[in-house]
From TrEMBL:
UniProt keyword Transferase, yes or no: yes
Ranges for domain Radical SAM core: 118-361
EC number: 2.1.1.192
An example molecular function term from Gene Ontology annotations: tRNA binding
Free-text comment on the cofactor: Binds 1 [4Fe-4S] cluster. The cluster is coordinated with 3 cysteines and an exchangeable S-adenosyl-L-methionine.
The organism's taxonomic lineage, starting at the top: Bacteria, Bacillati, Actinomycetota, Actinomycetes, Propionibacteriales
The name this protein goes by in its record: Probable dual-specificity RNA methyltransferase RlmN
Cofactors that this protein relies on: [4Fe-4S] cluster
Residues the record lists as binding S-adenosyl-L-methionine: G187, E188, S221, S244, L245, H246, N324
Amino acid sequence: MSENPALLPLVFDEPRGRKKPPRHLADLDEAGRKELLVEAGLPGFRAKQLSNHYFGRLVTDPDEMTDLPAGQRDALANALLPKLMDPIRVQTADRGTTVKTLWKLFDGALVESVLMRYKTRATVCVSSQAGCGMACPFCATGQGGLQRNMSTAEIVEQVVSANRTIGSGEIPGGPGRISNVVFMGMGEPLANYKAVVGAVRRLTDPSPAGLGMSARGVTVSTVGLVPRINQLAEEGIPCTLALSLHAPDDELRNELVPINNRFSVAETVEAAWNYARVTKRRVSIEYAMMRDINDQAHRADLLADVLNSYGDWAWVHVNLIPLNEVPGSKYTRSRDEDMAEFVRRLEAKGISTTIRDTRGDEIDAACGQLAAAE
């Protein structure tokens, strides 16, 4: 690796001169939307109507906004609802209940989102950055490096688009609404902190200011940017924190998650515990199961001991993830019997554990694979 992972910044500044995405109503709170319209010489009170069309009706076509004056529709939509991204490739799996979309942003950057329909819920996995700067060697996105942060509106648009798709009845199971959003797509969400928190607020703001989702249905994942975890705990948004730990010891985690050279396992897990203490929300520990790398029985015991060293209440749940393999990588999926033993050992020490239901294996489900292929 050419750069020292211990020096990786917490926030990636955009290169000077890079053109920013157009401002969109999802980037702004209600007051900001009114102000932008007034700056454009348009009636500020129309902002609420535009918000209702976008977040409530999931509409961006001015011709469908019949409650707006015909002579102002185009100007109003152009001011607050500019086009942010185009789908350039869509793949389906699991009998149509998993839909992966490759998006092209305004500047040509590529990102991915995945819609997953289950019997009792509908989840969309969204990207927060084009690429990723965390350089985890088993991750497809990490191999391509970071291109840029996404804006709040670009993040939110992935959810709004998923709502359009599932609301149209295109997905088996009939029309529905997205119930869960997970920030587990391309990028490190907490390295794009301001935009991600803005997106979470838009998702949870009551309609028509936002999508009106429950914060309990939103999960923000991180590889362990400790100061940002602590900052998120104080935001007053009780979303779920998912910590991508992947190893219980510093020696191995330094290799698998290079940011661990800056924030140790102990520091990272303590920050996660503090998040659970402050928000009263159980933290999810994400652990990608890699054959003969991190799936040994003694590491299951060590993981349980590390997690049990904080608090005397059920503050954590371990989510074991059968690795989505990247072609040509030395990191491969654990054997079923090793995963079962890992679960047994964690549960024997009182740690709530599940193995994640895998989706989309036949469509390069690991985020970053589709963009890399394109």
